[in-house]
Amino acid sequence: MPLTPDQQAEIDELRAAPRSTLRAVSEGMEAHLYKAIPVLDHGFVRVVDYMGDDAAITQAARVSYGKGTKSVQNDEGLIRYLMRHWHSTPFEMCEAKFHVKLPVFVARQWIRHRTANVNEYSARYSILDREFYIPAAEDLAAQSAVNNQGRGEVLQGEEAARVLDLLRQDSMRAYDHYEEMISQDGQQGLARELARMNLPANIYTQWYWKVDLHNLLHFLRLRADAHAQYEIRVYADAICKVVADWVPFAYKAFEDYRLGSVTLSAQMVDCVKRMLAGEEVTEETCGMSKREWREFRELWAQTTS
Amino acid sequence: MPLTPDQQAEIDELRAAPRSTLRAVSEGMEAHLYKAIPVLDHGFVRVVDYMGDDAAITQAARVSYGKGTKSVQNDEGLIRYLMRHWHSTPFEMCEAKFHVKLPVFVARQWIRHRTANVNEYSARYSILDREFYIPAAEDLAAQSAVNNQGRGEVLQGEEAARVLDLLRQDSMRAYDHYEEMISQDGQQGLARELARMNLPANIYTQWYWKVDLHNLLHFLRLRADAHAQYEIRVYADAICKVVADWVPFAYKAFEDYRLGSVTLSAQMVDCVKRMLAGEEVTEETCGMSKREWREFRELWAQTTS
Amino acid sequence: MPLTPDQQAEIDELRAAPRSTLRAVSEGMEAHLYKAIPVLDHGFVRVVDYMGDDAAITQAARVSYGKGTKSVQNDEGLIRYLMRHWHSTPFEMCEAKFHVKLPVFVARQWIRHRTANVNEYSARYSILDREFYIPAAEDLAAQSAVNNQGRGEVLQGEEAARVLDLLRQDSMRAYDHYEEMISQDGQQGLARELARMNLPANIYTQWYWKVDLHNLLHFLRLRADAHAQYEIRVYADAICKVVADWVPFAYKAFEDYRLGSVTLSAQMVDCVKRMLAGEEVTEETCGMSKREWREFRELWAQTTS
Amino acid sequence: MPLTPDQQAEIDELRAAPRSTLRAVSEGMEAHLYKAIPVLDHGFVRVVDYMGDDAAITQAARVSYGKGTKSVQNDEGLIRYLMRHWHSTPFEMCEAKFHVKLPVFVARQWIRHRTANVNEYSARYSILDREFYIPAAEDLAAQSAVNNQGRGEVLQGEEAARVLDLLRQDSMRAYDHYEEMISQDGQQGLARELARMNLPANIYTQWYWKVDLHNLLHFLRLRADAHAQYEIRVYADAICKVVADWVPFAYKAFEDYRLGSVTLSAQMVDCVKRMLAGEEVTEETCGMSKREWREFRELWAQTTS
Prior knowledge:
4 copies of one chain form a homotetramer. By secondary structure, chain A is α+β, with helices and mostly antiparallel strands. The first copy, chain A, contains 12 helices and 9 strands. Chain A has 3 domains: about 180 residues, 2-Layer Sandwich (Gyrase A, domain 2), CATH 3.30.1360; about 70 residues; about 35 residues, no CATH class. Helix content of chain A is about 45%, strand content about 15%.
């Protein structure tokens, strides 16, 4: 997403005016403020505000621990303890606000995370821009043969070319007709709230999205996951980098106890114990369904570095 | 939306098998269960489950009132009192679950109400049907000249015909190309999660939507309102009728204290008092902005029966 | 609540270290940061962090309005419009975090507002302080004779003295016994999580409470109301002053369209219209219940300045 | 908690009046309806309403899967898959409503779970009963020496007797004084909303609590856990039995994938792999902190047998 000169000027202006505050400041986050991180062909994520830092998490946790805490506890140690034991409320004490530009079909997945505040650009009130997501050649994946909800190999040759042609032509035609329908040149012009229905799901929209750190990490855990659709995962990946700079202790704990963690079912725990005791556990003796056994074996395979 | 014979048979089967329960039963709601109420050209709303009735509201309220309630209070009176004084928690004790089929652009407005449970048909996993919303001629409104977020007169003649042609042709073409891209006939076939991006916002989706009565009434207050977009209002109107049969006391209170109510600002209250005292209040002497003064006068005009 | 020298020193230290930020800054809120506003005999409210200002509200609203907004709209006018028309999401874009010290029976009312983030001092983990709320003589109200959920006149003479004696003595005795039970001096000592059960509801607790502006205003609307219990209303009143300094446009709109507003039922609207037309409406001809008619008449009486 | 004859008669009456419904019915839950399950010395839990069953979970999940599901998938298999892969929304499609009587200090922990609907008996409006939780001798635990937030051995002899005496006497005295203060016999009588502040946290309160299955299971996971305080765990244990009868497939999956599961951090996964490969991993070579290493070893110990 190449920024327009106007947009870049606005960002430069906002970053040129530091002010004085008595609040907690995260230097890592200040470095990100307002800058647009490009995602996909026309999208971006940019931080527009934030509240709190790593210390805000332990400060809130210590209200609950108060006097009982005898020694000055190491901040990172406490954050790791809280993450490990699913104490979520201290992480809710930090908040971030993002401005995101994203295709509508990605926005539809994103909004399923309900515990956040959202203000979206209104196509009922305003006119949308002529900007559509067209996948790069290497992201044009075939349907997976084994997983209804997955991708297989990258499309090649004529099939790939045909798909790109269709996506481009249909997008442009839909937008031409959108403009034609709302035009008030020599006609009344269709209501915007109706005309927008002609636009496909790869058109870009934008919103302000505000969320607390606990719910943000939950979002990232699901959407930065290998099973998430590529087009939302790239947004999650971009936000992961921002969070790592904002609250480095919390993010490291998140990597260790969430992103890189593995949850074992009661049956799986039993199998690991038997395997540690030297038993050769097999699909027949594991006590799991065929699918669970495959997932159990994939767990270990996936996490091999 | 004409039901297919299969769908009608399924509904008939579900309605043919009454069972015994010890729970509260609302006869008004039982009469609606599973039946599809047609909305727009291919959409519907149908109740698939519910919990509670008018008595469940007062039962919960009386836990909070307990022994202090000396006389046996009239159920309807208590419900009206609770509604009038914004006691929301007793209304949260009733719950309804709907199966809704609706255009994607309507679903995008609907989902902004976050306090509900939703399971939507997944176009990532499954293939969408060839069903698109095409407005009826009388709903093809022009953009409002005075309100960015509103409709003006109905389009006429050639302009109307051209709009309908464009919507129909673009829908059909987009779906043809969607099918072509995912086809595995002589090619790999594009992943479903990618192909869906070519489909416009008037395609139909469907979901299960579960919500408590308090949040349902809040939804209805906003979406059954004259300012809501017509295409979501018709769903709200259909649900209003269902709620009126489900919890008649609560619905009547909702009509009197929400749908038909008027909220006056501090300045408006002052004006009403001066007017009641015989003063001729004008735009100059009202103490409101031009826009507020217009809204104040419209309030009274709107509610004239 | 007289601060200890340690507490005052900590506040002074925090306020002595301004830092540079690129975020939006509210000068009105900076002036409040960390300072403890005394409430009741040992309680306080203090702002420990915030995000956003009046401009953050309009900024978010304009994402939804985008290009459609032709003229540069006045910020205050837009905020008033949003408040008047119940557009809640732009107000969710501001956030505040408070440190509050309050009696347990007040905390139990407060926590019923679920849309907030809370970390409370844990009496399971830590030892509570010997601090109890004892009402001032002028706040020692009798039970209302007409309203189960209300107060009547202030208690006088011996009755008042006896009540204060009981509250003081029972508090001190309960705390003595709490200390005796957890003491590990010559005995094992009861678990803190059990010993706390002996403490009465006027003991003070404390928490960090973080909430967005929309939900904060909703809290204030209910708790700064004349019908709220005095002991929570004084906290709401203190917070109202803070919000007025933080987001002055939003707070003024809140005063005009919420705190000072009046909601008329359909029946009441009808009566006002008849009264404006010169009719003498009476309890017999008003179409309301006895109780509603009284409330209708009180509405106008209350708001007479 | 021995029921009064009146309470038992009310339950018998409710259970004697089966009605006809077209909704999904869970026979396991019908058997529980209205019956009070005793918990602690005066508390109880009873189901007062519910919505949905195991089939409602798969029904909602299949809306998202639609046509893509080629074979008729086994209901239990699908439920286990959804639970294993953290698909939470289908579980939100079931709902239960409980009437709970519980000590105030337990209620204060319980209410921290915000995603539920609650109506509590109001001590502002009504008069509380003279019922206090006094622990059984075997539950009178000492403070843990190693864990601030835990219990050690059971108190013995004189120390135990003294604690029980103090709890009993302070409860009775506090209630005597509460009654004396609100009495209107020869005096005005203190307002109820003030008098309640004299009552200790072991007094019983009661509420209606309504929650969806996903959030209920989350509550049970945290509160039926060995680290939860005994006095809330007994409520969670009672509810676990009810859920097992209500939605047996979902409950079994919950046992296997949540209650009996173990989450391994990235470091722990690495250690398990090295151990499976035959390496003798020690505290020095494990790459974890001392505390994490201890927790890692306890994980395996806990789940033995």
